[in-house]
Amino acid sequence: MTDNPLDLRRPGPPGKGSDLRTDPDHTVDDDPVDDDYDQSSDWSDWMLPTDVDPDEPKAPPGFRQVGRNYAPARPDQRGTGRVIATLGAVFAVVIIVLLVVLESLPDTDEQSGPAPSTRLPAPLTGMVHAVPTTSTAPHVIADCPHKRSTALSSGADPGDTTSAVSVIFAFQYAYYVQRSATKAREYVTADAKVPPAQHIQEGIDSVPVGTRYCATVVPTSPGRWQVQIREQWPSKTPELLAALIITTATEPDGTATITAISAAP
């Protein structure tokens, strides 16, 4: 046999010292290839070992054994490993996402306790605010608020003798609505510095019937009040008529009376 590995001819063993090329008894076939040789066999089959050592290490994962060497595994041999690796990576990502979500959730144990109560402000005491209202009575100016407070009172109500402010409203009601000087004099003392009933009636008659009015009362000192009177004659606009100073007193029986009426300075 020659040293050429591709020279696959299999001649029989020659005699010692004989030369087949010069031996007259040896005949050479026209076809030098052995009749038993299968030309359809793969060349790699010639490289397979005929004796496999059971102790020889197996091919590592991802490789296949070719002779005594290793070659990368075919795609059908590596598919299972890739699937397993992919599933492992997906599972790891899911675990990480779950941990992040759980960490971001609020602690329900801390929030399960009773909610802190809201302190309501204490109710205000000692402060009374009178809400002004307007009257629809025909003798009241449209923008005249009905108000009562210690600092200011306004309106055109009938009044009475229960307080100093009420007796002042009663006098104005007798003048503009009842149009009676006699009735107006009932709210003043006998010695009051107030014109006599005759002069008061002359003033009443000078005012047209149907005149509207509004009185505003402001205290200036104990028993002393500044009173502003606004008039609105029929088909006219309201206007300020006068500013008066009225003094009051309280009788022994608690009745409030008027002791003086004068023009404001």
Can you summarize this structure?
By secondary structure, the protein is an alpha+beta fold. The protein has 5 helices and 10 strands.
Molecular structure report:
- The chain is an alpha+beta fold and 265 residues long.
- It has a domain at 138-264: Nuclear Transport Factor 2, Chain: A.
- The protein is 23% helix and 23% strand.
- It has helices at 75-104, 108-111, 164-176, 181-185, 197-205; strands at 63-66, 69-72, 133-134, 145-146, 153-155, 188-193, 212-221, 224-232, 239-250, 256-263.
- The protein has a 6-stranded mixed sheet, with helices on one face.
- The relative contact order is 0.08.
- Mean pLDDT is 75; it is low at 5-9, 41-48 and 117-131.
- InterPro entries: DUF8176.
- The chain crosses the membrane at residues 83-102.
- Keywords: Membrane, Transmembrane, Transmembrane helix.
- Residues 30-39 have a biased composition (Acidic residues).
- Residues 1-77 are annotated as: Disordered.
